[in-house]
Design brief:
Layout: E1 7-8, H1 14-24, E2 28-33, E3 36-42, H2 43-51, H3 79-88, E4 93-97, E5 104-109, H4 110-134
Parallel strand pairs: 1-2
Antiparallel strand pairs: 2-3, 4-5
Length: 136
Amino acid sequence: MTADVITALESDTAFSAACKMVEHNIGCLVVCAGKKPVGIVTDTDLIKRVICEKTSSFETELREFMSSPVVSAHPLMLIDEVAELMQKNNIKRLPVVDSSSGELVGIVSAKDLIAAEKNMITVLHNYLDSMRKGKQ
């Protein structure tokens, strides 16, 4: 999970969102009202819903094309629950929202899940290897 999430406002333009994504080398922005997520905008959204629709990126506000309501995880969800939620909703990025306050606390990407899975496999391999060496 990435805790330092780059966010935007509903009133931000598509152009400013694209510039922010490029500046931070990211593929999405969580759109927030205060600290609470109200939508999400991805680089794909910009292409499909702004550029291909031939609308002005300088005038189109995020509220006009962001995905909303936000599908989100909570901090205590297990990795397999997060993966299932992402697969069920066909999404690659999942905001993590505090259950009690409703505030954004992070974001999980499909790449995060792959890295976590790779680490788990390595830990399991090392454990099995140490068990095998202990029997010799």
